[in-house]
Design a protein that fits this description.
435 residues; alpha/beta; TIM Barrel; nine-stranded mixed sheet; three-stranded antiparallel sheet; binds magnesium ion
Amino acid sequence: MTKITEIEVRDIRFPTSKELDGSDAMNKAPDYSAAYVILKTDHPDNIEGYGLTFTIGRGNEICAKAIESLGPLIVGQDMDSIISDMRGFWRSMTGDSQLRWIGPEKGAIHLATAAIVNAVWDIYCKLEKKPLWRLLADMSPQELVSCVDFKYISDALTPQEALEILQKNESSKEERIKELLETGYPAYTTSVGWLGYDDEKLRHLCQKYLKLGWRHFKLKVGGNINEDINRCKIFREEIGDDCTLRIDANQVWDVEEAIAYTKRLAEFKPLWIEEPTSPDDILGHATIAKALNPLGIGVATGEHCHNRVMFKQFLQAGAMQFCQIDSCRLGGVNEVLAVLLMAKKFDVPVCPHAGGVGLCEYVQHLSIFDYIGVSASLENRRVEFANPLSQHIVNPAVLKDGNYLLPEAPGYGAEFNSNVINQFEFPNGSEWVNS
Ligand SMILES: [Mg+2]
């Protein structure tokens, strides 16, 4: 028996806006931040669960406060009971009748849910002494299905269908684990193409990442069209035609504008246009997808898609050709599993959103498991990579030749180094007091 005895919440912010790392058409100067949860237990080895939800600065305190409000739902719980009824646990976190009024399953309260649920999975991994991907890969199809809340999605995916997807992959799981242990999971990088970078920096970074073995890239667009054409041109000059390009507008356009604008960038052969319009506009995305399909450009979205119900509708409407789950906007691992399984049924590749802080460390586990247990395919699947902050994480994601190497440390992987709280807690950490 391992009991969760205490919850600690920290508002951690890194001053990334100083260098314009992370700048895009919507988010001009983000300070990558985490509402960070530490769940303490009575385990004799002092096991603690670390979890976070990601924000870009102001408002992080609201997520931290929401985590505190959810705290009484988790403190005092026993891990054995949670593990034996994962679906019930997840429902208890999202189903408090008063707290769900400020969601339900969306906004700050759902971001907060993600931080806690992720921390609980971190404890589960540590009890089993496995990294998350391995914990999931070792679970039986029945156990995995029992983690998923099918409420509101059973018209698109039934528990039986989910079970069949998982069962079909069961006998060949070990082959895929072996393959990934050798090669790693493929990634693309956004680090070359933040909108705030000038031409010279873009050229320099293209050359640098090419030399490091990267072949798959993403550029931010959606500012001035002529500047975007120029940026795409520079990118193709430096990178050549063999490498793949993705473009990301971060929600800045209306639907018709998105179509017109993307058509002007079609000559640079982007694989997808990401977040072309409001992340809530499912039918708008479907219209854009239909218009761009003849040009061979897909629509990618999901980093601001707040729950499995929205993903269901995006998939049903043919509104996303690339499914970009976010490990901290969906309500943690349980809800991610629901979306991985739905995406498989609709035959849409999952390419998680990452970057920020801690997101690369999280989503690597999710994609690795997706391949092992759910999709059994790497076609068109790549995890985003953009991580200037790995120095603050105890076990940062490790990449080689543009692939994520399989993490080995037990846990879900978002534990900060011990100095981070003293240095970066807002507003009293040394970095903020002195700025
Ligand atoms: Mg994006």
